[in-house]
Amino acid sequence: MVDKTTRQLGGSTGLNRYLIPVAIVLALLVGVRSGYNYWHQQLDDINQSIAVHQMQLDKYRRIIKNSARYEAANRALKTLQIKTRTQRFIDGGTTTLAQAKFQNLVKQLALQHKIDIRSTKVLPVQKKDGLVLLRLRVDGKAEIANIEHFLLALYSNNHYLFTPQLEIRVISSREKRFYYLTVEIAAIKEV
């Protein structure tokens, strides 16, 4: 009878003696497994970081290995930049001198192509995107073929010359040989 009462009050039996150690072992296994997963994740993160740093190191080694080639390319590009600036931009030191040089260039082209210049007007300088635009308005008179050759000479000139505004008008209905030309010409000044 004592045996039956002991079992009812939660006394230890054969089954209970094994359940507690098994639960402890399972709890230990779960704890070990979660700890292993945590440290395994940390190790994977470290390995991934090492791989990224290794790729960066390889990239830097390639850059250092090719540095002489990069320096040569940089020198060539700087030389090209200087050559382009001196050939394509109007250089004159000050803006006034550059405008005078620009005006002389346009007058020479007009003279070469038989444009009778009636007037020239220096327009205000514009600054756009770090560049200084010199502007000039030319009013003249010439035959249409000469006007065409003049405009082609402007576009094919070594300097960057642009015509933001162009107007060609007939002088009169009787005079069909000559035309009035009003053109705004812009050039880039070296900064």
What is the fold's blueprint, element by element?
Blueprint: H1 2-8, H2 14-65, H3 67-88, H4 95-112, E1 116-128, E2 131-143, H5 144-156, E3 161-170, E4 178-189
Antiparallel strand pairs: 1-2, 2-4, 3-4
Describe what you observe in this structure.
- The structure is a single chain.
- This protein folds into two domains: 1-65; 90-189, 2-Layer Sandwich (Alpha-Beta Plaits).
- It has a four-stranded antiparallel beta sheet with strand order 1-2-4-3.
- The model has no long low-confidence stretch (mean pLDDT 86).
- The protein is an alpha+beta fold and 191 residues long.
- It has helices at 2-8, 14-65, 67-88, 95-112, 144-156, and strands at 116-128, 131-143, 161-170, 178-189.
- The chain is 59% helix and 25% strand.
- It is rod-shaped and about 130 Å long.
